[in-house]
Amino acid sequence: MSHLIWGGADCVDLARAYGTPLYVVDETIIRARCREIQNTFLSRWSATSVCYAGKAFLTLAMARIMEQEGLGLDVVSGGELLVAQKAGFPMSRVELHGNAKSERELRAALSLGVGRVIVDGIMELEVLSALADELEKDVNIMIRVSPGVNPHTHSHLVTGHLGSKFGLPLEGELLRNAVCLAVTSKHVHLKGFHFHVGSQIFEPDFHVESVRRVVALVDKLQKEYGIATDELNFGGGFGVGQMPDGAPGIKGEPHVPVALFTDAMMSALTQECEARALSRPAVVIEPGRWIIGTAGITLYNVETIKRLDGVTYIGVDGGMPDNPRPSLYSAPYRAVLANKTDDAQLENVSIAGKCCETGDILIQSELLPSSVKRGDILAVFNTGAYNFSMATNYNRLGRPALVFVKDGASYIAAYRRTEEDLLQGEVVPEILR
Ligand SMILES: Cc1ncc(COP(=O)(O)O)c(C=O)c1O
Q1: How many C-alpha atoms does 71 have within 13 Å on its Cβ side?
Q2: Relative to the CA of 316, which of 41, 234, 301, 421 has its CA 20 to 30 Å away?
Q3: Average pLDDT over residues 204-216
């Protein structure tokens, strides 16, 4: 039987060596994505930069790779900021996001000297401005706006629509007041505006429409108030399919080039700026999933097979705690048996997680070898993004280990968190002894 090879490593050997469930990330795919960004975006368009959206997947190892590839880092909490700090990531290349930043997080951003704070509202701006005065620290900010577009994706993944909890609407006094406050604040320096329309988007139209709307704002600020905009940040959201392209023996889906989005946005920006006689602001993009999504797979042990009338359940040793996306967003995934990739006798099955939830189904419908048995290794593809970073401890299942693979070698990036580890910090209160 032939085995799934990932990053040059035999997945069955990986499962044996590190145990299951196991997150496996191919470093070569991540670096290839970064090179594509370099060749088709950064080199093609002047005054551009990229901040990897760490919420997709952030570990010390990943932060090091992003640093080596010359990218910036978008963090969204004190915890992600700490990872950047511990990984030695240059703070000037870090931007802090968040729609409900705490004073502690804002203080940390100021003290560490992050490159940008992406301000999400007036109240945050007031606090930031007061803290910057108190600490006598200058801070560069961008204001997040909601461009009012509604891309075709899962409703929980749309972020730039009117009424979103993120950002300020382009029209209206909230944004005007925020700009006024920013330009009159002593230590806060308004560099420009940020939008992020949503995630898992496969056509550039909504990004382009947002660019056009934001340039109208830039134009208005310039002409009516003499306020220049140096930078625009177009967020991320570029989609990836369910099957990796180019995995040996696997029929993948074509990779969506980043230039599909960046060329469309940059052309629209150039056009709009020329038409309005504006100089083109510098541009930042923030891809997350597009960089890491297809690099990751998750290996599980098959524990049970239950053949009912009309459905066969393959029960595995993980589920919604290591991948909450199917139950949160009905996100589709694909899988193979890593120890039987050439078995052509297939049957339709559902892959069930082991949690005490009817909704813990990792994959509703997949064709797997009908010879499937307890102890086989299931590999679920494209779990690089929003799996490790969204993992929970539901049913106290522990957390899978994380290994990186490259040219056949593997190295551990996060040790398994055992059931014992999960007890750390818990006590039996005196009163209950
Ligand atoms: C502000 C911001 N930027 C970038 C991203 C990355 O999105 P994606 O992983 O879809 O590229 C997100 C995702 O939620 C986001 O909220």
Answers
A1: 29
A2: 421
A3: 97
Positive or negative, the CA dihedral 223, 226, 230, 235 is negative
Question: Tokens 């000037």 belong to which residue?
Answer: 92
Cβ(239) to ligand 1 under 6 A? no
Examine the fold and report which residue of 244, 264, 290 is the final residue of a domain before the chain moves on. 290
First to last CA, the chain: 55
**Ligand 1 neighbourhood includes 290 CB (under 6 angstroms):** yes
Q: Say if residues 121 and 99 touch (Cβ distance below 8 Å).
A: yes
Residue nearest to ligand 1 atom 13, measured at CA? 199
- 237: Cβ below 6 Å to ligand 1? yes
349 and 257, same domain (yes or no):
no
Q: 133-191: per-residue pLDDT in tens?
A: 999 999 999 999 999 988 766 667 667 777 789 999 999 899 999 999 999 999 999 99
Q: Give residue 273's domain range.
A: 27-290
Q: Please identify every residue annotated as catalytic.
A: 356
Distance CA 246, CA 248 (A): 6
Residues 285 and 302 in one domain: no
Environment class of residue 416 by beta-carbon count within 10 Å: exposed (0-12), middle (13-18) or buried (19+)?
Answer: middle
CA distances 157 to 213, 243, 380, Å, are 21, 20, 22
